């Protein structure tokens, strides 16, 4: 397994080009199953999860052509398999996003039930309840979700008990080809849900209200093929902004969308950063300053994202003062804290809150984490630690960050990938 070797102490300075969003690319690539012609998807990030998604689509019989500049053309018209096998689903929970499109388009889907993962149990009951309410017959057999429907799914009123991002996306994708109108109440408002709706509306779907908590989908009989450009990754952007803030540097993130980062920007300003936003860039200046500790609770968009919690936990380790960070989305998302303690962080977890008291400096250590953002937060801690930190098991990082070591090196980090 590859590792990252980071020697801390250099303030980061320069420009980073932000990639397309993982969490938009995955549902949008899955949604191509619904189309009646080829789809050209651009600004696709080069990530392990994207490769897994393309492998899944290939196994289902979709034809794919890769174009220059991270665009992929997907022709789903000759699909002849409806099974998402365990060996793919176990490496990527988001494989569940194939369920809605397959069922809506082909009337059948066998999708391995995703297990829990390092950050929590992550059930998919709300996806299944919604599809059942739309007329699907769903059984669990031998670890697989076996979903069937005779003819088209039926539009329904779906009231979600919890705000679920992939649940909203799965049901929205299922509803676009259903007979009649579906409403999703208490829907997720995340920008990636909006990007998916834009993509689907571009090929003939009738979705309104994406980005609010009530989404209405008028089912249509067919969708055409078409084109879509994936929106910028707000979590990647936030991670690089924290990298500059934690090292007392100055950074410009280009090809970004600052309008998706309001809650994160508020906290960066609170920690002392000067921020400037343009239409497609965001700069952060923290030169010569030590960050001040921040406190917040994670919650669904537009509140502070759980996917940025670990990175700010790292920032608080070296900040001036006490910080209190509460995780409300996932029950086990502080796996990074024990590793941070090994680097000299003065931090403890009680219940779902991490309490920290900033220290002047961290010390390097060999560390590893069992999820994506936790691993990224250890890289951030390594950027300010005295000495050389080795972050193990970085396949988690490769699920969600495109060429992280190259992008960080370009802005002055001393970071190297150590191949297995
Ligand atoms: C590929 C993708 O987009 N992943 C994102 C998505 O994950 P994902 O869509 O899996 O996360 P959800 O929004 O579904 O999870 C939110 C909460 O709802 C619960 N829940 C969810 C579904 C369900 O059927 N039953 C249920 O109880 C979950 O356990 C969790 O406590 O949103 C998360 C929350 O912003 C992000 O951290 C992930 O990066
Ligand atoms: C939790 C995340 O992703 P996933 O839902 O793909 O596991 C994440 O992007 O931080």
From TrEMBL:
Residues 7-408 form the Enolpyruvate transferase domain. Phosphoenolpyruvate binds at residues 22-23. Keywords: Cell cycle, Cell division, Cell shape, Cell wall biogenesis/degradation, Cytoplasm, Peptidoglycan synthesis, Pyruvate, Transferase. UDP-N-acetyl-alpha-D-glucosamine binds at residues 93, 122-126, 307, 329. Its main location: cytoplasm. Its EC number is 2.5.1.7. Pathway: Cell wall biogenesis; peptidoglycan biosynthesis. GO terms for cellular component: cytoplasm. It catalyses: phosphoenolpyruvate + UDP-N-acetyl-alpha-D-glucosamine = UDP-N-acetyl-3-O-(1-carboxyvinyl)-alpha-D-glucosamine + phosphate. It is found in: Cytoplasm. It is an enzyme of class 2 (transferase). GO terms for molecular function: UDP-N-acetylglucosamine 1-carboxyvinyltransferase activity. The modification 2-(S-cysteinyl)pyruvic acid O-phosphothioketal is found at residue 117. InterPro entries: Enolpyruvate_Tfrase_dom, Enolpyruvate_Tfrase_sf, MurA_subfamily, RNA3'P_cycl/enolpyr_Trfase_a/b, UDP_GlcNAc_COvinyl_MurA. It comes from the Bacteria. Pfam families: EPSP_synthase (PF00275). GO terms for biological process: cell division; cell wall organization; peptidoglycan biosynthetic process; regulation of cell shape; UDP-N-acetylgalactosamine biosynthetic process. The active site is at 117 (proton donor). Belongs to the EPSP synthase family. MurA subfamily. Cell wall formation. Adds enolpyruvyl to UDP-N-acetylglucosamine. This is UDP-N-acetylglucosamine 1-carboxyvinyltransferase. It comes from Pelagibaculum spongiae. The gene is murA.
